[in-house]
Design the sequence.
């Protein structure tokens, strides 16, 4: 009898253990499903699809939120803004930036969607510049020129990420001396802050141990109708610039600071992008549309000031751009070719987005009349840009 009772107890314990294990497995599966469902319901990509080790560091997806319900998702691979969810005129949340739904898609082919760009944003002619009497050679990756820091710029580097509360993310990267041909070890810190007035503030800071050149920016592609919604030709654009830098056929500035008066680049009053991007003008031909640096009125400033506004008549979403920088690259998405599939599952076709990349001028190291991009030991590179959203 005692043996029968003992056997029954042992059998009960075994069944209990098995049930507990099954319950735990179900709980884990439920948690995973709930997280994916929560991401889907929020309009953001699934976090699990960004959790991957890259170059010996852990990649992840970080979500910033504010009191008004706006959300910004950032991954530390390239410090990219993956999603920007803002309310439209009807109160619906719209994702206004192009991007992918998994880290594997970003790794498959460089798109520059939402990424931090460095050590030098934009182009340097023939991949070379002279500093302190020495000529530095850079990788050629854009026709005859070097673009966005070279073949493996800051866009393809893993950044150390530190969340600060619910609304800020600090990113840190050390670019070694000689990386992509640039002199000096550059220590870079970038902080994204989502403000309660629906602004994404990006603060850049860098120091060096050797004279070098620096030009950092963010390469977000915007469509205020919603990513994957098609053309941005209906968007109204206004940029506070009396001059621009004309370019040659390879998109390198000629060195001239030309007036915008009487050209397609006179954007001092709001104009639909589609009205100007195909006009008969040699500079539009060189760029295949808009792909030019505009010389911002007031030059470089200590505090961010309003330099541009873009508005979607369809959604009512408006984006103000504020910066301390002396220039902005207005790019009309001319090189999008339908080969990249976005978060919506739709292909990104030509001119399905625009960029407003705040910056010093392209090829500045080779133009003495352009604002200097030289950073020396003991100095601190500091610049701030903010993309602020509202409804009109």
Sequence:
């Amino acid at each position: 009898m005692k043996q029968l009772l003992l056997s029954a107890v042992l059998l009960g314990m075994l069944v209990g253990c098995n049930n507990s294990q099954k319950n735990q497995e179900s709980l884990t599966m439920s948690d995973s499903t709930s997280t994916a469902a929560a991401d889907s319901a929020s309009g953001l990509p699934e976090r699990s699809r960004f959790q991957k080790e890259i170059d010996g560091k852990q990649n992840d997806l970080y979500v910033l939120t504010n009191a008004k319900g706006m959300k910004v998702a950032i991954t530390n691979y390239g410090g990219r803004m993956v999603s920007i969810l803002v309310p439209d005129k009807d109160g619906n949340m719209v994702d206004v930036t192009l991007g992918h739904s998994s880290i594997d898609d970003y790794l498959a082919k460089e798109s520059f969607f939402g990424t931090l760009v460095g050590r030098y944003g934009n182009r340097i002619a023939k991949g070379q510049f002279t500093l302190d009497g020495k000529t530095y050679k850079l990788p050629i990756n854009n026709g005859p020129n070097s673009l966005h820091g070279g073949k493996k710029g800051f866009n393809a580097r893993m950044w150390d990420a530190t969340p600060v509360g619910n609304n800020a993310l600090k990113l840190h990267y050390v670019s070694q001396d000689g990386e992509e041909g640039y002199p000096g070890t550059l220590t870079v810190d970038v902080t994204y802050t989502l403000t309660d007035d629906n602004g994404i503030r990006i603060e850049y800071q860098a120091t060096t141990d050797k004279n070098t050149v620096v030009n950092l920016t963010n390469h977000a592609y915007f469509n205020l109708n919603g990513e994957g919604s098609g053309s941005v030709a209906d968007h109204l654009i206004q940029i506070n610039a009396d001059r621009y830098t004309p370019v040659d056929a390879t998109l390198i500035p000629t060195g001239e600071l030309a007036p915008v008066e009487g050209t397609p680049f006179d954007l001092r009053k709001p104009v639909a992008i589609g009205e100007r991007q195909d006009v008969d003008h040699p500079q539009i031909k060189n760029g295949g549309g808009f792909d030019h640096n505009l010389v911002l009125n007031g030059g470089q400033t200590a505090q961010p000031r309003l330099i541009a506004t873009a508005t979607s008549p369809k959604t009512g979403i408006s984006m103000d751009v504020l910066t301390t920088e002396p220039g902005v690259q207005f790019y009309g998405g001319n090189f999008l070719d339908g080969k990249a599939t976005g978060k919506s599952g739709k292909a990104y076709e030509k001119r399905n987005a625009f960029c407003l990349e705040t910056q010093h001028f392209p090829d500045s190291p080779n133009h003495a009349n352009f604002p200097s991009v030289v950073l020396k030991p003991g100095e601190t590179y500091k610049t701030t840009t903010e993309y602020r959203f509202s409804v009109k």
About this structure: Residues 236 and 272 are 4 Å apart (CA to CA). The first helix runs from residue 2 to 42. The chain is about 15% helix and 35% strand. The two ends are 83 Å apart (CA to CA).
